[in-house]
Write a structure and sequence with these properties.
The chain is α+β, with helices and mostly antiparallel strands. Helices cover 19% and strands 28% of the residues. The chain folds into three domains: 230 residues, endopeptidase fold (from Nostoc punctiforme); 116 residues, Immunoglobulin-like (Sandwich), CATH 2.60.40; 173 residues, no CATH class. The longest helix is centred in the N-terminal third of the chain and has 16 residues.
């Protein structure tokens, strides 16, 4: 039980970790713009590139690096090439700009996928398939390859390293593959600098699949390193054992590639600028007709001179402008903002949810700063319990010290005692019936965590608050017999949860359920384990992890 409870405590866990970190790495509260950094352009030493297309790649990569917090994919965080299901790919991989990332919107990506995302945002083309092994097969893009036998002398290794370093150019993907294990892909941006997506502790992503824990520290996302560090004794990616190294240059294949208009705008307007958009409609919560939402744009200018930027926000039909200092032209809001050198400018404006929205609608507004998209987390429309109803449920949870019914039956009783009627199936039926299944041979399997729209609980699942991870026994390209395969592993933050939410998890075939109370407390609903626990003070919960399988957080009011 303690392991599963921990899944609710991901943010608490992070808060404890960040409390010990420097101020630069500490994320702000969910509704407050984070203190974002970014690369400062040195105007005295302008850079030159072989083409505008290569410059677009480099500047886009730097925009990702500047974020320090990244995009969480709406559904599939990562799709692996499982034997027999290799055609399934993560559909959202190419969806988001680097500028979309905020403390409200975080992501996980592996090393190779990140390099492809950079190229897609720079050129508008998906340059290759998903894994690092695909780079090894991309012979028409190879500039240099080298097979390491492990028997090289130190002199031979040094000569090879020097040849390798002499050939790299900005925009090159540096790829290594080690025999019998995974590999790594990095992006060279020039001036001896490399950017790469890598997790703290040496993982290939900024999600620790072995421990199922979040890493939102800067070191756990897109990192930088020097070209000279490759081959040093302290570097994870050096010439050793049996391995393959390559310099992959996508411009050799995509000879007609052109930088996208947005990438050109990023070059011309957004170098040295880090911007983000936040919303008071926090992740996991829903809004209803008549609600007001306040957006905050934060623009940090790291340049030595002031920058003037045009901001355009095109409101969707679901929203109407209420207040702010924008110039409103119908549903289009405009600002011209001058941000002094090394300063930060904030813009705040409020909109209202229109009366014709429907439950389940997903509201996204389109904001551009300097011609580059800068968007916040989507806002979902749905019914929520009133403050009075939440207070009544919290009072009933607090009274529950002993129980004669358990699981979802106990949840129904607590709601009923608070004057609210709900009807639920068993916890196991809810969690197992919430996801689509696919047939592999004659056996139905959950290949990824995609909600089943035909499920009676589809409209109850709190937005983005579902998923899990599972164990597979074989994966193409790997020799390990048991691998964690994390498809949607982002656990909910504490401020996503509402009083009355019902959390259902499976671990090793066992199902457990919980109900969220006020004051950062959670009630275990399991037979023989009914107990009111603190989300903030349970040491075991803070230091342990969710089990494998699945979880959903259902909000019964959304289906009322």
């Amino acid at each position: 039980m303690k392991r599963i409870i921990a899944f609710l405590l991901a943010l608490t866990m992070m808060l404890a970790v960040f409390a010990a970190c420097g101020e630069e790495k500490k994320p702000a509260a969910n509704n407050d713009p984070i203190d974002i950094g970014g690369k400062t352009e040195d105007e005295e030493t302008p850079r030159t590139f072989a083409s505008k297309e290569i410059e677009a790649v480099v500047v886009t990569a730097e925009a990702y690096y500047a974020r320090k917090a990244f995009v969480q994919y709406d559904d599939l965080s990562m799709v692996a090439s499982i034997s027999g299901l290799s055609s399934i790919r993560r559909p959202d991989r190419l969806k988001y700009n680097p500028e979309d990332g905020t403390s409200q919107f975080t992501w996980y990506t592996n090393c190779a996928s990140w390099t492809y995302d950079v190229y897609y945002q720079a050129w508008g083309q998906d340059i290759i398939a998903w894994t690092t092994s695909s780079l090894q097969q991309a012979t028409d893009m190879h500039v240099w390859t080298y097979a390491v036998t492990g028997e090289e002398t130190e002199e031979e290794r040094t000569q090879t390293l020097e040849e390798f370093k002499s050939l790299v150019e900005p925009g090159d993907i540096l790829c290594c593959r080690h025999q019998g294990s995974g590999g790594h892909a990095m992006l060279y941006i020039g001036d001896g600098q490399i950017l790469h997506s890598s997790g703290s502790g040496g993982g290939s992503a900024n999600y620790d699949y072995g421990k199922n824990t979040d890493n939102l520290e800067a070191k756990g996302t897109v990192q930088s390193k020097t070209l000279d560090s490759i081959g040093s004794s302290g570097d994870n990616y050096y010439f050793f054992g049996e391995s393959w190294w390559g310099i992959v240059r996508p411009s050799l294949r995509y000879t007609e590639a052109k930088a996208t208009e947005e990438a050109i705008n990023r070059i011309n307007n957004m170098q040295g600028i880090v911007a983000e958009k936040q919303t008071t409609a926090t992740v996991g919560h829903t809004v209803k007709a008549g609600d007001e939402i306040t957006f905050t744009l934060q623009i940090k200018n790291n340049n030595k001179t002031e920058k003037t930027l045009e901001i355009i926000d095109t409101l969707p039909a679901a929203l109407s402008y209420v207040s702010g200092d924008a110039t409103a032209e119908g549903n289009v809001l405009k600002w011209n903002v001058t941000v002094p050198a090394t300063s930060t400018q904030k813009i705040t404006y409020t909109v209202k949810v229109n009366s014709d929205v429907k439950d389940g609608d997903k509201i996204e507004s389109n904001t551009t700063i300097g011609g580059v998209r800068v968007n916040s987390r989507p806002v979902y429309v749905g019914k929520n319990l009133s403050a009075e109803q939440q207070s009544a449920i919290d009072a009933q949870i607090t009274k529950t010290t002993a129980a004669t019914v358990y699981g979802t039956d106990l949840a129904e009783k607590i709601y009923a005692d608070a004057g609210i009627t709900i009807s639920l199936d068993s916890a196991a039926d809810i969690v197992n019936g919430s996801f689509k299944t696919f047939v592999k041979g004659t056996k139905p399997v959950t290949t990824h965590f995609e909600l089943d729209t035909s499920s009676k609980y589809f409209n109850m699942v709190a937005p983005t608050m579902y998923g899990g991870y599972q164990v597979v026994t074989s994966m193409k390209g790997y020799t390990s017999e048991v691998l964690w395969d994390g498809y949607r592993t982002k656990t909910p933050q504490v401020n996503q949860l509402m009083i009355g939410d019902i959390v259902i998890c499976t671990e090793g075939g066992k199902t457990s359920s919980y109900m969220i109370a006020g004051g950062s407390r959670v009630l275990c609903l399991d037979e023989g384990k009914v107990e009111l626990l603190s989300l903030l003070e349970s040491k075991n919960a803070l230091t342990s992890t969710i089990g494998n399988d699945k979880f959903v957080i259902i909000r019964p009011a959304m289906a009322q």
